[in-house]
Amino acid sequence: MITTQLIINLLLILTFAWILGSLFNRFGLPAMLGELLAGIILGPPLLGIVTPSESLELMAEMGIFFVMFYSGMEMDAKELLKNIWPSIGVAIGGFLLPFGLGFLVTYLFGGTIFQSLFVGMGVSITAIAVQTVILNSMRINKTAIGHIIIGAAIVDDILSLIALSILLGLAKTGTVSLSNLGGIILRDTAFFAITILLGQFVVPKITRKLHDREGKAFTFAMATALVMAYLAELAGLHLVIGAFLAGQFVRKEIMDEKIYHVISDRFYGISYGFLVPIFFFSLSFHLHFSLNLSFLLFAVTLIIVAILGKLVGCGLGAYLFRKNVWDSVVIGFGMNGRGAVEMVVASVVITLSNDLLAKNEITEPLLTEPQFSALILMAFVTTLLAPITLKWAAVRACRADEKASFCSLWDENIKQMN
Predict the structure, then answer these.
(1) How many folded domains does the chain comprise?
(2) Nearest to 335 by CA among 161, 81, 91, 159
(3) What average pLDDT does the segment 255-272 reach?
(4) Cβ neighbour number for residue 140 with a 10 Å cutoff
């Protein structure tokens, strides 16, 4: 429902996000950092002028939905498949090492085995939506490295889903149900099989006949995105994966180029011009500060191992697939942002924990409030640092090898910002 308060909140969010985003752009940094800072200043962490609401949360989620579809349109499916094995290597390295480090840190700070496992899983997740925005803003999304990062983020989400299912099964019953795990793998396989069939045989027949009278091409694109998002949710995956894959259906080579650009421009304007700033602003709603020394030590240590775990794990995975050192560093930093996915995972764990405690089926919570807050803080800080560290690594990589795949796009991006 549109209320006077919602209008005021949107006006404040968009105005401050635009001002601070433009300021960050002047210094060669992505606008999303300004949008994050706007949330910190106006949101609950500092002034508390703008507070959470169902309407703002919905718009934030829609922002990620739109930007993931747009990113799917911009990505080359053939390049994604060409880099599938490096993506899998990066995802496995970037999942296992942060998981182990997160587990170890939590256990050393007094966490139970289950608490350590759930925190480790939260640390291991890469937010595909956040990474997509960062890569798009820095023009790395169309390069081989960009395809590896996006492919790895998708694989990372699938690994996280499997790990979550195993851990939830252990928490509920003390055992892992092979039938449940097999069901998850079967659902995911069916989802990607249906995606391939639709993308290759059904959608191209429709897109060739599209026209833009009364905005019907945009309507078709939206319907495709919603169908794929629904199928992704049925498979137990996040809707952003469905939206991203739907964007792959609307590509230049199977439709009129003018119609393609009309759809692309509309999705770009709605997402980056309106809904994405709300998403990054809204991340501040989940940020909790505490001056407790033990909490601060735990949170800082968790942030450090989260960054190093992704950098080393993903970088090593890339290096094993013959990427040079600087390309591996770029990929490692490119996988370092977290966001909505692990916030959802942490919330699911907290809900289950409260339910099991109420039934007296467990005596210790699966995730304590300080651990939950530390995960949220870690997600926020890594999202804040990801574009800064990625820019630093990209600059060094281009100095070391001016012919690196993304350097020409990087130079073009810098010229546009200046």
Answers:
(1) 1
(2) 91
(3) 81
(4) 24
The token pair at 134 is 């960062």
Domain that holds residue 114: 4-417
210 HSE (CA, 13 A, CB side): 27
203: nearest Cα among 158, 150, 248: 248
User: Quick one: 45 exposed, middle or buried, by C-beta within 10 A (0-12, 13-18, 19+)?
Assistant: middle
How far apart are the C-alpha atoms of 378 and 303, rounded to whole Å?
5
Residue 155, C-beta contacts closer than 8 angstroms, at least 6 positions apart: 87, 88, 91, 92
Query: Which distant-in-sequence residues (6+ apart) come within 8 Å of 193 by Cβ?
Result: none
**Among 106, 102, 84, CA closest to 151:** 84
Does the structure show a pLDDT above 90 at 304?
yes
pLDDT in tens, 361-403: 777 888 887 888 888 788 878 877 888 888 888 777 776 665 5
Q: How confident is the model at residue 237 (pLDDT cuts 50, 70, 90)?
A: low
Cα 309 to Cα 103: distance, rounded to the nearest angstrom: 12
Q: Judge if pTM exceeds 0.85.
A: no
* Domain CATH for 31: 1.20.1530.20
CA-only gyration radius of the chain, Å: 21
- Helices 369-400 and 113-124, packing angle to 10 deg: 30
Distance, CA of 412 to CA of 40 (rounded, Å): 31
Residue 340 has pLDDT above 60, yes or no: no
Phi/psi-derived region of residue 339, left when phi > 0, alpha when psi is between -120 and 50, beta in every other case: left
Q: Can you tell me the mean pLDDT for 201-225?
A: 74
Q: By C-alpha distance, which of 76, 48, 202 is closest to 148? A: 76
